[in-house]
């Protein structure tokens, strides 16, 4: 046996460490160890009152035998060394008696993985050198001393002040610093230790944080404290509440002999042997992965003409549907403007009013066209029918209906501006200042007597209707902007009450008055007297009738499609789930949405919500996040009939109406739908990549459930449980054979929203066709010491019960945000030369990155990604 001291044999002055290397006794090696046989090698750290086993190489039976021989060795080496040997014997017995851990693998891969799990400085803070820290020290120091309360801010841990203070205490204890402040020199020592890239140094620092009494041993109470601290730093309230339970779990795993404490090597074993928590996705071919990375490496074309040509080709390839629709719309607007401009240039009024009248009439003609067209993108029943029952979706971008509605609204604003400004600032003043001879041709239009002042034009029917329309349009335009609709502006409370979704909804319904005035304004014209030349009503008649039928259909359907509330659950994160009965004949596709009306909140307002249940379910469900006044009032109404959950039920409040003996009075809900949405096209793809942020996972959960139901149904058909073609098995063409679902959320409590679905998929998807990935962004990324203990807990709990400690489901939770490029790379390698449907629902911030990655991988690889964004 060889004993090696991990520290230098040349002891530091004042230290009482014992350095020793070599065999315990002189003479030959025991005959038991032949040259061609393996032997036990132990690396020890021998100190004054303790001996730490750093590493063991050799078989378990050899270690056990060695322990028994050490116990029997006579005290010929001195009392101190004999005492040390007895400690080694005790530790070896403990290590060999436990079967819970395999031999510690301190291989390159194992140590590297553990090293990534104990970084006190993340990649952002770690890039800062001592010079930045020194600058902060000079800014924050008081009388040349940095207080403990400002330590986190100084080293870049401002968001984790409690964790930083515990780190400060551990570093101070190591140096016998008792004050609550440090000098610059001491801070430099702290900084060098926490930025040390060695695994042993990081492990010792983490151990010192947990070992508050500095006795070299960690008790269950100390484990509990560090668990609570880590959970608090990562905003994991449930883990913090159950710190006692998880501390006992760690002690059970690392202290099988129940001695009441664990030591440094226990943490090392756990870190090295814990499964990697990395989100780097494995692939079937390392060579293919490297080739793909090289292919995706950005290369800049030196020739500017070729570079622009390539960008143009990519742009046309990605946006050809939008391009031809926009080109057609602009061509029609330009054609109408030019036609009217030339027509009035040839009339007598041109001699008096000049080009102003031509511009005004050209703008008016485009306004008529756009006022008719703007209604079509919001005829939701018509669009749903067209995208579901026809092939027009191949050439028309139905996903962009709301965006096109906004573009047309901008066109209306331009047309109204040209028309109103030309009339008010040019036409009318020129007419007022015309000579009698110039006015003569104008008498059939403006009367025998020339208008004597400007207000003559404004007070007429043509004038006041135009002014009122412009005012109402301005109000609707302003309140429709995201800053007002989503209450993003920090406005005074009195003004803020006039904004929000309700203000947007009501102001948008001013269009009824606008269209009535538009027809009147288009009938009482100065320069057109014959009825067939008053074309305003001709433009808008058909769209208005179509839109009116849409609204009548909504009123009719909602009248007989009443629903009965089955279950209500209020979850963390201001989310409420409502389960309701499915009306007879209500057929929908996953990804679609319906409108909901609650007369107890507002008899007039209808709000859209995605259907979170699957078509095969015998109920309808929706998940609502309370972010506005209407949803807040709805949550208040339902909370009154809810009670705290019992047993293993999830949620903060629940009301299972269908099972309850007492039937409380519930708000009455009306629904109208379903309506088409981008996510409903998932069935067209063999492989789908589903990305949901927060509550945006709702339509994607429905898709996951539908894919699972389809898999189960196909399996039942293959097993002969049910016959193909029988009632209930006839489904629309279903191409999807593989799904990747990525759900990113900020709060641990959010995982309760769809806990049942996650567990159902994990249990029933035996072939692994649905790949689930949960991400909690409140937890610090892998490689951060603030989440190291959470990672350990997760590994132990997952191995023991198969349940993730963060999500409470069988799906393992990843920490921080996904590396989206790695996600796309993973899918590309698994599905070469295939068409992948990418469906995203969530805030606007991620749209650009996902769209860019879809385009980048489609251009540079054989796999084609088609990006679809849900309007959120």
From TrEMBL:
<keyword id="KW-1133">Transmembrane helix</keyword>
<keyword id="KW-0106">Calcium</keyword>
<dbReference type="InterPro" id="IPR013112">
    <property type="entry name" value="FAD-bd_8"/>
</dbReference>
<keyword id="KW-0285">Flavoprotein</keyword>
<keyword id="KW-0479">Metal-binding</keyword>
<dbReference type="InterPro" id="IPR018247">
    <property type="entry name" value="EF_Hand_1_Ca_BS"/>
</dbReference>
<dbReference type="InterPro" id="IPR000778">
    <property type="entry name" value="Cyt_b245_heavy_chain"/>
</dbReference>
<dbReference type="Pfam" id="PF01794">
    <property type="entry name" value="Ferric_reduct"/>
</dbReference>
<dbReference type="Pfam" id="PF08030">
    <property type="entry name" value="NAD_binding_6"/>
</dbReference>
<dbReference type="InterPro" id="IPR002048">
    <property type="entry name" value="EF_hand_dom"/>
</dbReference>
<dbReference type="Pfam" id="PF08022">
    <property type="entry name" value="FAD_binding_8"/>
</dbReference>
<dbReference type="InterPro" id="IPR013130">
    <property type="entry name" value="Fe3_Rdtase_TM_dom"/>
</dbReference>
<feature type="domain" description="FAD-binding FR-type">
    <location>
        <begin position="558"/>
        <end position="681"/>
    </location>
</feature>
<keyword id="KW-0597">Phosphoprotein</keyword>
<dbReference type="GO" id="GO:0005509">
    <property type="term" value="F:calcium ion binding"/>
</dbReference>
<dbReference type="InterPro" id="IPR017927">
    <property type="entry name" value="FAD-bd_FR_type"/>
</dbReference>
<keyword id="KW-0812">Transmembrane</keyword>
<keyword id="KW-0472">Membrane</keyword>
<comment type="similarity">
    <text>Belongs to the RBOH (TC 5.B.1.3) family.</text>
</comment>
<dbReference type="InterPro" id="IPR011992">
    <property type="entry name" value="EF-hand-dom_pair"/>
</dbReference>
<dbReference type="GO" id="GO:0016174">
    <property type="term" value="F:NAD(P)H oxidase H2O2-forming activity"/>
</dbReference>
<dbReference type="InterPro" id="IPR013121">
    <property type="entry name" value="Fe_red_NAD-bd_6"/>
</dbReference>
<feature type="transmembrane region" description="Helical">
    <location>
        <begin position="463"/>
        <end position="484"/>
    </location>
</feature>
<dbReference type="InterPro" id="IPR050369">
    <property type="entry name" value="RBOH/FRE"/>
</dbReference>
<protein>
    <submittedName>
        <fullName>Respiratory burst oxidase homolog protein B</fullName>
    </submittedName>
</protein>
<keyword id="KW-0521">NADP</keyword>
<comment type="subunit">
    <text>Monomer and homodimer.</text>
</comment>
<dbReference type="InterPro" id="IPR013623">
    <property type="entry name" value="NADPH_Ox"/>
</dbReference>
<keyword id="KW-0274">FAD</keyword>
<dbReference type="GO" id="GO:0004601">
    <property type="term" value="F:peroxidase activity"/>
</dbReference>
<dbReference type="InterPro" id="IPR039261">
    <property type="entry name" value="FNR_nucleotide-bd"/>
</dbReference>
<feature type="domain" description="EF-hand">
    <location>
        <begin position="198"/>
        <end position="233"/>
    </location>
</feature>
<feature type="transmembrane region" description="Helical">
    <location>
        <begin position="323"/>
        <end position="342"/>
    </location>
</feature>
<feature type="region of interest" description="Disordered">
    <location>
        <begin position="1"/>
        <end position="31"/>
    </location>
</feature>
<dbReference type="InterPro" id="IPR017938">
    <property type="entry name" value="Riboflavin_synthase-like_b-brl"/>
</dbReference>
<dbReference type="GO" id="GO:0005886">
    <property type="term" value="C:plasma membrane"/>
</dbReference>
<keyword id="KW-0560">Oxidoreductase</keyword>
<feature type="transmembrane region" description="Helical">
    <location>
        <begin position="504"/>
        <end position="524"/>
    </location>
</feature>
<dbReference type="Pfam" id="PF08414">
    <property type="entry name" value="NADPH_Ox"/>
</dbReference>
<keyword id="KW-0575">Peroxidase</keyword>
